[in-house]
Amino acid sequence: MIKKITLFLVLVAAIAAGAFYYVTNQVNLFLSQPLKLSEQQIFTVKSGSSFHSVLNQLQQQELIDGSDMMPLVRRLHPELTQLKAGTYLITPDLTLTTALQLFKTGKEHQFSLTFVEGSRFSEWREILANAPYLEHKTLQMTEAEIAKALGISHEKLEGLLLAETFHYTYGDSDLEILQRSADKLQAVLDEAWASRQDKLPLKSPYEALILASIIEKETAVESERERVASVFVNRLNKGMRLQTDPTVIYGMGDKYDGNIRKKDLRTRTAYNTYVIFGLPPTPIAMAGEASIKAALNPESSKYFYFVASGKGGHVFSKTLAEHNRAVRAYLKQLRSNK
């Protein structure tokens, strides 16, 4: 009798062991399946999601094949179940196991936004409005309201944000990105203002930003920034009008259709530096760090004019006669390119 009981217990144990092995193997096969991806994509583990709901979400999005063993994963692999909410980048090389391990780390995917030097705040607003996985707090706010929220005393934000690339994660807000940009701009401006040249015709850091924005719009050639800055500083020191086209364009607003006509140069606006003396009342674009530094540490030169060379840079002149010759050469270059 004892032998029969022993034999029965051995048989039960063998069946149980076999069943456990089968179940364990099936669960491991389920976990080792590759994600059904042909290219990388974003996957969001929502706040409050259970482990089982994440598996269901992966199955519903056809990223994995389902299995009757899904409910047993938690019991057999508890180390995979402590998932953190966030937005992750999943790639074709991941298996379900490695994907779950990624969701455990909390290392969310970093999105990026690039604000181009010389762009306007209206363009920034459009970029922010179209940015994915970003909380849009500023959509219904005016520019003045945004400025106030950022702790900026000016109602116009043109020139008061630093143009560069910013990274963010799921749930960050557009206002947070703008605050980071404003803070970086202030840090760059403070440093540049503290190390500025003596006797510049600039009364305040804000005027430095105005000049920097004009430099930004006039040249994208890194080696020319300080020389362009010197032209404007020389003209300001001599009481000459700046006569720079980008200020005319900015003053025209929506009326600008891609061309500047003679009547536009003569039409008075607060920004038309062919008509007004000195700097316009606000910056005309977002400047980068290099243009801010150039405005406050221009090259020492005797140049008062410059015109495009037609070859990507500019020709600088000390006298109006030299400048007129450079203009004629530029026009000739344009005709030869047609």
Highlighted features:
338 residues, mainly alpha, Dna Ligase, domain 1, Double Stranded RNA Binding Domain, 3 domains, two-stranded antiparallel ribbon, 13 helices, elongated
Description of the structure:
The chain has 338 residues and is mostly helical. The chain has 3 domains: 41-109, Endolytic murein transglycosylase (Dna Ligase, domain 1, 2-Layer Sandwich), CATH 3.30.1490.480; 110-303, no CATH class; 304-338, Double Stranded RNA Binding Domain (2-Layer Sandwich). It contains 13 helices and 6 strands. It has helices at residues 2-32, 51-60, 70-76, 96-105, 121-129, 143-149, 174-194, 205-218, 225-238, 245-252, 262-266, 289-296, 320-337; strands at 41-45, 86-90, 111-114, 165-168, 305-308, 314-317. The strands form 3 sheets. Strands 1-2 form a two-stranded antiparallel ribbon. A two-stranded antiparallel ribbon has the order 3-4. It has a two-stranded antiparallel sheet with strand order 5-6. The chain is elongated. The N and C termini lie far apart (108 Å). The mean pLDDT is 90.
